[in-house]
# Entry
Amino acid sequence: MRSMVSIALIFILLGCERQIPLVDLDFKQKLVVNSYNHNNSPIAFSLGSSVNIGSNPSLSGLNGEVEILLKEDNNNIYYATKKVRNGEVELPLTAKVGKTYELQLRFDSLPTIRAIDKIPELPPVMLEDTLLEDDLYYRPKITIKDIPESDFFMLQVFAEGTVEQNGITDTVLKP
# Structure
């Protein structure tokens, strides 16, 4: 009886094998933009392109010319064609608090893309609730109160401390 169950299980497992052709999928390459802008800093962004799931992504950025339309609160404030070197582009404009920016980009034969972002008027409030000691490590518990009109925020954490190895103490700063 046990052998019959084992044989049936083997047939079931072998019968479920199916290859999915990843190379032949209908894939359309798209432009990808990545940007994080600060108040009173130049507006800058990185450009890349999407890749098929079956291929290897390129670590180098795009090169060429990109057509840029930038709107501030729905008003056109910048239109130009700029050189893209290793995927990096910087505009001669600075971002301002409370303004909504819409960036429209066209590069080569890739479809045009649009990105919208807003620099909030108030930063989120972050409070450290407690600092828990866990053997050799500390774990902070924090509360973040975001402003009402904001949907997202970016949290960048740095850790500072000392490391002792072979009797030598060294200061460490890790992003």
